[in-house]
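Subject: for your reference before the review

Hello V.,

The reviewers asked for a structural picture of the protein, and I figured it would be easier to keep everything in one thread rather than splitting it across files. Below is the amino acid sequence we used in the manuscript, unchanged from the supplementary table.
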Amino acid sequence: MASIDFLSYQFTFSALALILSVFVLQLFIRKLNKQKK
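And here is what came back from the structure prediction:
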């Protein structure tokens, strides 16, 4: 059971990290677009 809980926790953490990185990337692209204008 412990290994399954660890795997599910690792999957949830990686999914949150992926969403967070995409969100930061979008903010970074918006800043670059504002600087171009």
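For the response letter, the relevant points are probably these. The chain has one domain: 1-37. The mean pLDDT is 91.

Happy to draft the paragraph if you're swamped.

O.
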